[in-house]
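Input record, target 12 of the design panel.
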């Protein structure tokens, strides 16, 4: 009688260990889920707002979130090494905003092959087939909206400069492409006098490049487009130094306090604003859902809005421009 009883008990143990669904097993371990979030950089307000959203999700879903990124937004090696370190640590999921969509593709794929759930946010990769979800703004659409707004401000005529960010950045490249394609289509009388210069990954480098452009085109330029936070702030500083602020129609991308102040002064005429708080929150949520065995949408659009001096004080605009990040992190 003892042998049949032993077999019966063993069968119960086996059934309990291997028979429960992934979701049931994950639920019992959810307190221990470790999710690493790797931004392009840690210094800009955009990334701090992403971090706040990620920390809100961490609290809501009871997971441990570690936030670690490069000091500046063009350090490809630092991002690769950070991914590799988290793989060695054996985290359950990684959410990464790739500095370079080509260079980061293989490191992300290798991490996924170890069993780590990979989420990509903000900026895409060359391939997404081993990624659970891509959480980002529709960046091409953002460029389209900026082209329409600048064409409206210029009444369809004039000369325009676009200062790019850097080569390899998928998100900003799509904004630049959306802007150029749309402006050519809807405003054929607008002349693009410079579209090939790059501002780089910092406000300082963008300001230097902007000063060179304005030195060359100060007596010609009627409108300017910049496709991210540091190029917009760098260009605004250069315009102020050259005495051109407010005289040239200026549409930028992203928001921080100097740019919001620029709109209040009517020297910055429109901003395409993303929702970085939602981006950080939804990236961690997607990682958690994937770990729980739940269905995750392969593409999650976090939205983009054109904000101008005329609508910046509405409740809807203020919710995007001034999220309560101090509640989640200390700046």
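The sequence produced for target 12 reads:
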């Amino acid at each position: 009688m003892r042998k049949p009883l032993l077999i019966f008990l063993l069968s119960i143990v086996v059934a309990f260990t291997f028979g429960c669904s992934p979701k049931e097993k994950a639920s019992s371990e959810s307190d221990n889920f470790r999710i690493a979030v790797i931004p392009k950089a840690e210094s800009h307000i955009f990334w701090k707002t992403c971090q706040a959203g990620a920390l809100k999700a961490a609290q809501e879903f009871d997971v441990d979130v570690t936030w670690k990124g490069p000091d500046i937004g063009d350090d490809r090696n630092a991002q690769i090494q950070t991914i590799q370190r988290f793989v060695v640590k054996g985290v359950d999921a990684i959410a990464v905003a790739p500095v370079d969509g080509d260079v980061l593709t293989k490191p992300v794929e290798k991490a996924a092959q170890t069993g780590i759930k990979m989420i990509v946010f903000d900026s895409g990769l060359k391939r997404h087939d081993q990624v659970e979800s891509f959480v980002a703004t529709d960046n091409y659409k953002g460029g389209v909206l900026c082209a329409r707004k600048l064409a409206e401000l210029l009444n369809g005529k004039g000369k325009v400069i676009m200062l790019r960010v850097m080569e390899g950045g998928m998100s900003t490249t799509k904004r630049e492409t959306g802007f150029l394609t749309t402006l050519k289509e809807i405003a054929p009388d607008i002349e693009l006098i410079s579209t090939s210069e790059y501002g780089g990954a910092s406000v300082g480098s963008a300001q230097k490049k902007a000063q060179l452009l304005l030195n060359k085109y100060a007596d010609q330029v009627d409108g300017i487009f910049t496709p991210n936070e540091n190029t917009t702030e760098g260009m605004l500083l250069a315009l102020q130094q050259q005495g051109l602020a407010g005289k040239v129609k200026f549409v930028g991308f992203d928001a921080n306090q100097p740019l919001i102040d620029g709109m209040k002064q009517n020297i910055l005429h429109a901003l395409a604003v993303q929702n970085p708080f939602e981006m950080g929150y939804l990236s961690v949520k997607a990682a958690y859902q994937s770990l729980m065995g739940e269905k995750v949408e392969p593409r999650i659009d976090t939205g983009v809005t054109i904000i101008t001096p005329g609508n910046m004080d509405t409740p809807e605009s203020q919710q995007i421009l001034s999220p309560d990040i101090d509640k989640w992190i200390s700046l």
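The chain is about 45% helix and 15% strand.
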